[in-house]
Every structure is written in structure tokens, then in C-alpha cells.
Design a protein that fits this description.
The complex is a heterotrimer of chains A (411), B (311) and C (291). Chain B has 311 residues and is mainly α. Chain B is 77% helix and 1% strand. Chain B has helices at 6-21, 28-53, 61-77, 83-105, 110-130, 132-135, 153-176, 178-188, 190-195, 200-226, 236-249, 256-274, 278-292, 296-310, and strands at residues 141-142, 228-229. Chain B has a two-stranded antiparallel ribbon with strand order 1-2. Chain B starts with 5 loop residues before the first helix and ends with a helix. Chain C is 71% helix and 4% strand. In chain C, β2 and β3 (140-143) form a beta hairpin. In chain C, α3 runs antiparallel to α8. The longest helix of chain C is centred in the N-terminal third of the chain and has 32 residues, at 2-33. Chain C is globular and about 60 Å long. Classes of the chains: A alpha/beta (411), B mainly alpha (311), C mainly alpha (291). The interface between A and C is large, with 42 and 42 residues.
Chain lengths: 411, 311, 291
């Protein structure tokens, strides 16, 4: 008898969970024939905040595009998939998106390691792939190619600003300890920081380093090693849940505030929303891709308002995807057909209208010339969170030149 | 032919005909999917040689699967070997690794065997994962080139089908040979086997190595299919994938793991289109099948067929 | 140099104690019920999430943590009890392989239940008052919360030992562990004992999660960060041995944290090397009994 009920219960549960989710539809567009965006980002694991802040940007852009007549009379639709912060899963999903869902372009990915794998796949399949969060400079540098675009900035240019801010705010500190995650994003973060920093402080030296895995729960062995290494500055490119854990443990150990810290992506709202007056890293510099609290333009304020009212979150990661999706829609409409090669040509050199102003998609490397914002983490007056206050803005001059990119790719 | 019954031979021929003609009826997406099924079928059947036939549950099967993939990948990208050579070197290399590992593992029984095989597999994983400069670490190796004639889904499909058929025939011959019968006897009663003078350890060691060889074939094929390799191919979650597959299909029949592979991959792809909550559905399926179909799907179907036949 | 090593020892011990709490439950379930529950770490994750919910129930306040410390493990224990009744009972007589796969299915199910209930966000729990702050000791700084975590280990160990050796229930549990059929023949309600042991083990894992929450982050997938480590610990310590789990956890925690000083990247290998070594040389573990 019990077996019978269990069996029925299981079957009922299975059917219930198979119900597909519906989407609201705009009138006047060919809804049987949408143009699909294959969106890949982590929905599980320690970096899910990028997804929850980036996807709204995509969705808002889609809404606006569809309200303005869609793309070639067809609506844009996003097909989101979990890449689990893992290249194997990402590729499996990418393959399904391209071959079965027939998406027009792939979009997303937080981990640079995953992005590299997806970029390779896009190149093989001759499909456009727009990187929306991953930061390694190599993705549009030596690993770049015709089909990959990046709709956000990269860590190399961020670190130009971060190195500069570190020296300006903390003085020319020499002894550095590097605590970064062991994958491409982590390696990219460290090498680009150290390169830029050494140009400003030539006798800077590494007194120790450790490379724990992403998702590590316990940094205390590493943090105690930092404390006892004599370092004046700790550099890290860990982010989100891992970074919050690290900060917690550093506060618990009394390390926080004692030595200066530079967290490449610690200025990002995604993390900063978790800070409050009892819990934030002191004497720490962080970078952000969209310090909306410090940007005064009407366009930016309106964008922030839109995202907040529709999705209940502040934008940050979303701003890059928002601008890019709109730029894509414009390019496809201009070209008149879904021809990948023609759309790529239309995108090269295109100027995206964005909440931070016009941003060019540079033709030589398909890197969007997004700015970056760096500052000391602290209370932001007028807003209910802590973040990089009074950030300095770094612009397109921080990106490597086209000649440098060409040289890297030739190798 | 005394090695396979007439009925089974006819069934095999029918399925073979179906698989050969299938790509012409279904789209490119399905072709890719079925290739994955073929590869998983090889891996699960290989793993089942130890479990269903040998009575030894290994938790380290992903280690050899991944070893095959990595050896193939590294030989192609670092040493410039041609694909064909690398594909053969993968299983051969994995078998060599299986020699010492298997020797240690078979000296333990039951859960200790399982744990030891897990420990070795995880060690292999850690070696690959931490050797960032050489093996790519967490980022893996991507963009591995394969020969032009294999570069389409269709041609890789027939390539994999051919290899799968060869592997399955080979494994069938092995389990039905005197050696194979001895292995099954060992599973049933080790004491008696000992009395007859059989060197248990030697036989178990042999099946361990054979199983690892074919696991690595699957791994190498997968490497060629995706043209990449990641440390995750060796991680314990991959072992569980393979174990779920052969359990789903049934460990007491030869064809069970293959059926399990078809069901598992099919369910995976179909369900994920409707919901992002695939894990809970897979979990419920596993619980359901473990509780109500202990002989797996193949066993379940077989017993249903047998009861109707008896009537 | 000394401060460095000492600091590593302290952090290794504190994390080791959390691992002990999870591993000992797993070990007890294996020793008594003869089931290897690979989903045990999911209870750890559940405990952490419940801790978050309870501490934020009336608004973020660090005083609520102490209530969570009491309630969250109980919640996990109840959940574990229901699971045991519904799903585990039928498979006690089955082979190891089926138990493994079924409990692996549970990892997936519990994982998605957590995702459905709490979403994909990750959460923070603050270190509770009065454990904020650090103290200076032997040249290095120790956080009060770390000391608390380290203290919990022996406290729970004594609790378990007391339960097993000084109470009637404990005697019954030990009898069932030693010989199931004999105990049943003597009139012991073995099924009830199984349920109690399983609930206790879930309680322990939930406690581990609750204790870890203020130190780390609460996110989906945190169960897989401890699963394999627990296997390593109970293999080293010995299946079914409580003292073994304690010893194994200490060995593991220290091997990890000291290993970082010696070979930072390869530190994760030490656990598996120790596991393989124990299995080859002395498979029943340091404090286990040969079967």
C-alpha cells in the first residue's frame, strides 16, 4: 500500500515539475519565429550573482527592442542555461543551444576558463559569441578571433586603474602577497595587476602566493600565512561568495584593516550590496564595471530606475549586456538578414548607446571600450550600501592598442 | 555460433541497421546526442565488467576514462601525434596506469576496494588539476584538432558506431570465454574458486585492467568528439554518472549498460528543455528505479518478457 | 616561523572540527545501519541554510544565531528522520551499490529542494555576539569564533561518547551495531534504533552546517565541497569509529593547512594520499576494527 502511494506520489511530482514556464508576449511580432539568444552563466555555485544581475540587463534590452518593433519583425527571446561555472557543462549547453535551439548568438559566461572553451566552440561553429562578464584579457587578445566579442571591459585595463589607485591611496607599498583562484581568470587578474603595478612601483616584490580553487570555503590557512609573511598589501581576484567568505574570515582573524588589500572586483555592487557598517573590508580598494552611484547622467539614472523597478535589483553587470543586445538588434536590423558575417562587419566600430555614454566596439579586437571605476571601499553617501566611494574613472586609454593586439595574435 | 544465441544475434543486427540508417532520419542535434550515447555505452559496459561480472564496485572508473582522454589530448597537442595513434595510445596508456593501481585495489574487498579505487582516481584528478602549465588545470585543453575526414558530426557518428561495435563484441567475447566464466564464478563464491586452485587476485587484476582499457577508449573518443578535455572528466561525479547508467540499465545483463546509456542521455536532454530542475528529476528517477526496479530497466523489461513468454 | 605554523595549526583544527561533526555522523550511520549515505553532506548544507533563515527571521541580528544553533540542527534531524522512514528503510537489506546510488539520488533531490526554497542567491550569516573579535596568543591572533569552533569538537565528542556508553539508549545502539539479528531476537526494536541513529547523524551534520555558516558563505553546491573530504576522514579514522572520525578529522585538517605551507597547490592531494595509504596498509583505519 505504501509502495503504491510512493509510486503515485513520485509520478505526480515528476509531471508537476515538467510544466514549462510561459513568457509574456508582445503584440505585432512573429512570435512563432523568435530570434534566440543563447545565454550561459552560472545558476549554481559561488558566482550566481553575476547571472542575477546580468540577465535583467539582457531582459530589459529585449523588452525595449521588442517594444520598438523587434528584429526584422521577429521578437528577441533569451534562452538561459546554467553553465555551473564549469567548461564541460558550458560546452554541452552551448552545443545544445546552437544545434537544437538554433540561437543566433551565444552570450554570457562569468569564468574566463569557461569563456575560453565557449569562444573556441563559437569559432568552430562560426557563431557570434558575446562575452558578458569574463575578464581575462586574453579572450580578446591572443585568443581573440572574428566571432568573439566582449560586451564588458577586461581585467587588464581594470588593473591599470587599480594599480594606479593602489599606489595613490596606499602609497608605494612593496611587499605583496597574492591570493588568487587557480584558473584563467585568477591568473589573468594577478599578472595584469603585477605588470601595471611594477611600472609604477619598480621594486615591488611578491612575498608569497597561494592559488586555492574557486569555491573554497576556508581561507584561514591562507590568511594566517598572509599575516605572517610580512606583506604590506594583499592582492586577490576572488569574487562574490568566495570573496565574502574571505573577508569574513579576514575580519575574524584580525587581518582586516591591518594590511592593505586590493580586490580586483571587490568594488562591484554584486558584492558590495552585502556590506554594511558592521561588515565591510577596511583599507581595501575595489574595482567596478559600473559604479552607478557615482555617475550623474540622466541616462544612467533612468537605467538604474528601470532595472530596479522591473527586477528589484540594482544593475551593474547588466549594463554591458543591455547595451550590447541593443547594439546587436540595431546591427541586425541594419544588415537586414540573419547573416553572421555581415552582422559582425556591422558591429565592428559600432557605437553602443549605453547608460554611461557612447561606447565603441573596437574593430580590431571586438572589445567594447567600457570604462572602469576604482576606489576605496566605504560608505556611499545617499545610498544604502558600501562600495568604492569617489571612484576614479579609467577610460579607453587603458586598453592595449590595436598594434599590441595584432602582435599577440600573430604568435 | 555457440557464443551468442540466434535470437540475440538477430536483435543485434536489427539495432545495428537502425543505428546505421538513423542519421538520415533525424537532425544534426540528434546525431550528436547519439554519439554521446555510444560513448557512454562503451564506458558503462566496461565499468560493468568489474561490477556486474566481477562483483567489484569501483568508484574510480572516471579516473581511467579521463586518463584515456588526457593521454590522447596531450599526445596530440603537446607531442604532435596524429589522431589515430593518440586514440590507441589513450587506452594503452590507461592500461599501463591500471597495472599498479589495480594491483593495490584488488587486494582489498567490498567497500575498501571501492574507497581505494576512489582514492586513486581522485589522486589522478588532483595531478591533472594542479599541473596547470602542462595539463591546463581547471581550464582544461580546448581546440584539440582532429583529422578533417572526422570533422563533421555525421562522420564522427559512424566512426564512433564502428568502434562501439568492435568494443562491445570484444567485451562480449571476453565475458563469454573461459576467463570470463571464471570471473563470474569468483563473484559468486571466492572460497570455492580458491579451492580449485585459481589465483583470485590475478583474475581480478586482469579484469580490472581490461575494464580500464575500454573505459579509456570511451574517454579518448569523447575527447575527439568534443575536441577538448577537462579535469572534470576524472572527477568522482563522472564515476557516479557511469554507475547510474549501468544501474539504470541493469548490471546482470550484457546489454543493460547500453540501454541505461540511451535512457540516461535521452532523459537528460529532453527534460532539460522543459525545466532547469533536472537534478531533482534525475534524483527521483534514481530513487524510483533503485526501489522498484532493482535489476534496472533491462532486467525489468526482460522479466516482463520472460513472464509473458512462460504463459 | 613559529607563528606561521601555529596559525596554520589553529585554522586546520577549527575546520577539522566542522568536518568531524559531519564525518562522525556518516561513520555512525555506516557502523550501525551499514549504509553509506553519500548525501550526508546535503544535511550539512541544509543546516547552513536553515541557520541563515533563522538568524534573519526577525531581521538581521546576531543574537539570533544562538537560537539557530539549537533549532537548525533539530530541523535537519526531523528532515533526516522523514527521509529515513520513506526512502532508506527499503534498502537496508540491499547491496552497497544500491544504497550508494539511491543516496546519490538524494544529493540531487535535496540540492534542488534547497534551490527551490532559497533560490540561487548566496547568503551571509554574521558572526554572533559575543564571539566577535580576536585575542592575541603566542604571537598570533586567534578569533574567538575559531576557538569556539575548536571547542565544539571535543564537546560533541564527549557528548557522543556519553550517549553511547553511559545511557541505556547508547547500550542498545551499540548492541545493534555489534549484532543486529541478535539484538532483534532479544526484543530490540531495531527499526526504531536505526531511525534514531540516522536522525542523530543528521543532527550532527546540521550542527556542522550551522557552525560553519558564520565563517563562510551559504551557497548551492556547498555540499560537494565537503563530501569527498568526509570519506577521506572516515577511511583514515575507521568506519564506524567515533574516536576514529575525530582523529581522522584532526589529521585531515592539519594535513591540509600545514600542506599549504609546504606545497600550496598540491595540498589537496595529501588527503587522498593519506586515504590510499591507510587503505593499503591498514584498511580498517586508525581506530577501526577489522571485520
Amino acid at each position: 500500500m505504501k509502495r503504491y502511494f510512493v509510486r503515485i506520489g513520485l509520478i505526480v511530482m515528476m509531471f508537476f515539475l515538467l510544466t514549462p514556464m510561459a513568457e509574456s508576449q508582445q503584440k505585432g511580432l512573429d512570435w512563432d519565429n523568435p530570434i534566440k539568444i543563447g545565454y550561459l552563466n552560472p545558476f549554481t555555485g559561488p558566482a550566481t550573482l553575476t547571472t542575477s544581475l546580468d540577465l535583467p540587463g539582457v531582459r530589459l534590452a529585449i523588452e525595449e527592442v521588442n517594444a520598438a518593433g523587434g528584429v526584422l519583425g521577429r521578437p528577441l527571446v533569451v534562452v538561459p542555461r546554467d553553465d555551473k561555472l564549469n567548461p564541460e557543462h558550458a560546452l554541452r549547453e552551448a552545443k545544445d543551444l546552437v544545434v537544437n535551439e538554433k540561437v543566433f548568438w551565444l552570450h554570457g559566461v562569468t569564468s574566463s576558463g569557461v569563456a575560453r572553451a565557449v569562444s573556441q566552440y563559437a569559432k568552430d561553429q562560426k557563431k557570434i559569441y558575446a562575452i558578458s562578464v569574463a575578464k581575462s584579457e586574453k579572450l580578446t587578445g591572443e585568443w581573440g578571433h572574428r566571432y568573439v566579442f566582449r560586451s564588458t571591459n577586461n581585467v587588464e585595463m581594470e588593473n591599470v586603474g587599480i594599480a594606479k589607485a593602489t599606489k595613490e591611496i596606499f602609497g608605494p607599498l612593496k611587499k605583496i602577497y597574492n591570493l588568487s583562484p587557480d584558473y584563467e581568470g585568477g591568473h589573468a587578474g594577478w599578472r595584469t595587476f603585477f605588470d601595471s603595478y611594477k611600472k609604477l612601483v619598480p621594486d615591488a616584490m611578491l612575498v608569497g602566493e597561494a592559488w586555492p580553487k574557486l569555491g573554497t570555503q576556508d581561507y584561514t590557512p591562507n590568511l594566517t600565512a598572509v599575516m605572517n609573511s610580512g606583506a604590506e598589501l594583499m592582492f586577490t581576484s576572488f569574487y562574490q561568495a568566495d570573496a565574502l567568505t574571505m573577508i569574513k574570515q579576514s575580519i575574524a582573524l584580525g587581518l582586516d584593516g591591518k594590511i592593505a588589500m586590493t580586490g580586483v572586483w571587490w568594488g562591484m555592487y554584486a558584492m558590495c550590496q552585502k556590506f554594511n557598517k558592521d561588515f565591510y573590508p577596511k583599507k581595501t580598494i575595489g574595482g567596478s564595471t559600473y559604479a552607478f552611484w557615482a555617475i550623474d547622467t540622466a541616462e544612467s539614472k533612468r537605467f538604474v530606475e528601470n532595472i530596479k523597478s522591473k527586477f528589484g535589483v540594482y544593475p551593474e553587470y547588466g549594463v554591458n549586456s543591455y547595451a550590447f543586445v541593443k547594439a546587436m538588434a540595431k546591427a541586425i536590423n541594419k544588415v537586414g538578414t540573419l547573416d553572421t558575417e555581415k552582422v559582425i562587419t556591422a558591429l565592428e566600430g559600432a557605437i553602443m548607446e549605453s547608460p554611461v555614454g557612447p561606447v565603441e566596439i573596437r574593430a580590431c579586437d571586438h572589445q567594447a571600450m567600457w570604462p572602469s571605476y576604482v576606489g576605496l571601499i566605504g560608505e556611499v553617501p545617499g545610498w544604502d550600501f558600501y562600495a568604492s566611494k569617489k571612484p576614479i574613472v579609467i577610460g579607453r586609454e587603458a586598453y592595449p592598442t590595436c598594434e599590441e593586439i595584432a602582435k599577440l595574435r600573430k604568435k | 555460433m555457440n557464443i551468442i544465441g540466434r535470437e540475440k544475434l538477430v536483435l543485434c543486427a536489427i539495432f545495428l541497421a537502425i543505428f546505421i540508417t538513423l542519421p538520415f532520419f533525424v537532425g544534426g542535434g540528434w546525431t550528436s546526442l547519439i554519439i554521446e550515447m555510444f560513448i557512454m555505452a562503451i564506458a558503462a559496459t566496461a565499468a560493468n565488467l568489474m561490477t556486474g561480472y566481477g562483483g567489484m564496485v569501483s568508484f574510480g572508473v572516471a579516473g581511467f576514462y579521463g586518463a584515456g582522454a588526457y593521454i590522447t589530448a596531450l599526445l596530440i597537442t603537446k607531442a604532435g601525434f596524429p589522431f589515430g595513434v593518440a586514440l590507441v595510445a589513450g587506452p594503452v596508456g590507461a592500461s599501463i596506469i591500471a597495472l599498479p593501481i589495480g594491483w593495490f585495489c584488488v587486494r582489498r574487498t567490498a567497500i575498501y576496494f571501492s574507497m581505494l579505487s576512489l582514492a586513486f582516481a581522485q589522486l589522478m584528478y588532483v595531478i591533472v588539476y594542479t599541473w596547470y602549465s602542462f595539463a591546463g588545470g581547471d581550464d582544461g585543453i580546448v581546440g584539440i584538432p582532429i583529422p578533417a575526414f572526422l570533422n563533421s558530426a555525421l562522420s564522427y557518428y559512424y566512426f564512433t558506431l564502428a568502434i562501439m561495435v568492435i568494443c562491445l563484441i570484444a567485451m562480449w567475447i571476453i565475458v563469454n570465454s573461459p576467463f570470463g566464466k571464471t570471473i563470474q564464478a569468483l563473484r559468486e563464491n571466492q572460497e570455492r574458486a580458491n579451492f580449485i586452485g585459481i589465483n583470485i587476485r590475478r583474475y581480478q587484476h586482469a579484469i580490472f585492467i581490461i575494464s580500464s582499457f575500454f573505459l579509456a577508449v570511451a574517454g579518448s573518443l569523447y575527447c575527439g568528439f568534443n575536441q577538448n578535455v577537462f579535469a572534470d572528466y576524472m572527477f568522482w561525479t563522472k564515476t557516479f554518472d557511469i554507475i547510474i547508467v549501468y544501474l539504470l540499465g541493469g548490471i546482470y545483463t550484457f546489454i543493460g549498460p547500453t540501454i541505461g546509456a540511451i535512457i540516461y542521455i535521452l532523459a537528460n536532454k529532453i527534460i532539460i528543455r522543459y525545466t532547469e530542475y533536472w537534478p531533482i528529476i534525475l534524483g527521483l528517477m534514481i530513487v524510483f528505479i533503485t526501489l522498484f526496479m532493482p535489476n534496472g530497466m533491462a532486467g525489468f523489461i526482460w522479466s516482463r518478457i520472460s513472464t509473458t513468454k512462460k504463459q | 616561523m613559529f607563528e606561521l605554523v601555529f596559525g596554520q595549526i589553529i585554522s586546520g583544527l577549527s575546520v577539522g572540527m566542522v568536518f568531524f561533526l559531519i564525518a562522525v555522523g556518516l561513520s555512525m550511520v555506516f557502523g550501525t545501519l551499514r549504509v553509506l549515505n553519500v548525501a550526508h553532506a546535503s544535511f550539512y548544507m541544509l543546516g547552513a541554510y536553515l541557520c541563515y533563515t533563522i538568524t534573519h527571521f526577525l531581521g538581521p541580528s546576531s543574537g539570533m544565531f544562538w537560537i539557530a544553533l539549537i533549532l537548525a540542527p533539530i530541523g535537519v534531524a526531523i528532515f533526516g528522520g522523514i527521509l529515513e522512514l520513506l526512502v532508506l528503510r527499503p534498502i537496508y537489506k540491499r547491496e552497497l551499490l544500491y544504497q550508494l546510488i539511491l543516496t546519490f539520488g538524494l544529493i540531487l533531490i535535496i540540492g534542488d529542494i534547497v534551490k527551490l526554497t532559497w533560490g540561487v542567491q548566496f547568503y551571509q550569516v554574521n558572526i554572533p555576539w559575543p564571539l566577535l573579535g580576536t585575542v592575541s596568543f603566542l604571537g598570533t591572533r586567534l578569533s574567538y569564533y575559531h576557538i569556539f569552533m575548536i571547542a565544539m569538537g571535543p564537546i560533541i565528542l564527549i557528548l557522543i561518547w556519553g550517549l553511547l556508553h553511559k545511557t541505556r539508549l547508547g547500550r542498545v545502539i551499540r548492541a545493534v551495531t555489534y549484532n543486529r539479528d541478535m539484538s532483534s531476537a532479544l526484543g530490540v526494536n531495531v527499526s526504531l534504533v536505526y531511525t534514531i541513529v540516522f536522525m542523530f547523524a543528521s543532527w550532527l551534520a546540521g550542527l556542522g552546517g550551522t557552525l560553519m555558516a558564520p565563517m563562510a558563505s551559504v551557497f548551492l553546491g556547498m555540499d560537494t565541497t565537503v563530501t569527498i573530504e568526509c570519506f577521506i576522514i572516515i577511511v583514515i579514522g575507521g568506519f564506524g569509529s567515533t574516536g576514529g572520525a575525530f582523529l581522522g578529522a584532526i589529521v585531515f585538517g592539519l594535513a591540509n593547512s600545514l600542506g599549504i605551507l609546504v606545497l600550496p597547490k598540491q595540498a589537496i592531494a595529501f588527503g587522498f594520499i593519506a586515504m590510499a595509504a591507510v587503505l593499503v596498509v591498514r584498511p580498517w583505519g586508525l581506530l577501526g576494527k577489522p571485520e
